[in-house]
Each structure stands twice: as structure tokens, then as C-alpha cells.
User: What shape does this take?
Amino acid sequence: MTQEFYGEDLAKYKIERACEELDTAELLYNNEKLKAANNRAYYSIYYALTAILCLEPIAFKRHKDTIGYFNKNYVHTGIFPEEIGRNISKAAKVRHASDYDEFYIASKDETERQIQTARTIIKLVNQFISKK
Assistant: This one.
């Protein structure tokens, strides 16, 4: 693939994917499938983060490496607010519990926060990319 594809084209695709996952999270939430909604909200966040990294281009095999790189280079440098870094970490923990802890009970309030975090991150990432 060309460098061009890895840049803006792939970033746009990742944002579209993030938006699709957010839509799915909202559908699941509205149907009270909270664990699945947490999963999709997290993946919405994850795809939004990878959209930014496509512009460098850089990619990681593990989600925690992607999140760590984003926090180090975009949150700790002040490009994105610190609250976003905390919310991303929280979303990852909630997704992990939703997917792997059979005794985890997802709450509507927590799931709503995950979806709101995804909305906020997509908005901020879109603003960031549009300035590039």
C-alpha cells in the first residue's frame, strides 16, 4: 500500500469505523445489551485513536501500546485534555470486564458514560484531523 493510503485515507476510514461502532453501541444500549454496548463504545474509541496514528503513520499490535502512545504523545503534551486519557483507560477497563468477567454487572449509567466518552473522542479526533 502507498504511504498516501496509510495517511489521510486510512484515517478517514478509521473515523467512519469509529462512528459505526458508536452507532452500534447506542443501538445495543437502547436495547439494554449493556455489556455489548460497552464493548462497541470501547472499539469506537480505539478506532478514533488509530485514526490519528495513521497520520504519522504508526501502528501497534496491542491495544495498550496504542493507548500508551496516544497518551504519551497527544494527552501528556496537551494536544488532547488529560480527562480524555483517564476516560480512555476507564473505557478499556470497562470493556475488559464486560467481555471477560462473567460476574461483571454493567450499569446503564456506566454504559452511558462509555458512549459519551466515545462521542467526545470522535468529536475531538475529527477536529484534530481537520486541522491537519
Observations:
- The chain is about 80% helix and 0% strand.
- Helices lie at 3-30, 34-54, 63-75, 82-100, 108-131.
- The longest helix spans residues 3-30.
- The CA atoms of residues 39 and 96 lie 8 Å apart.
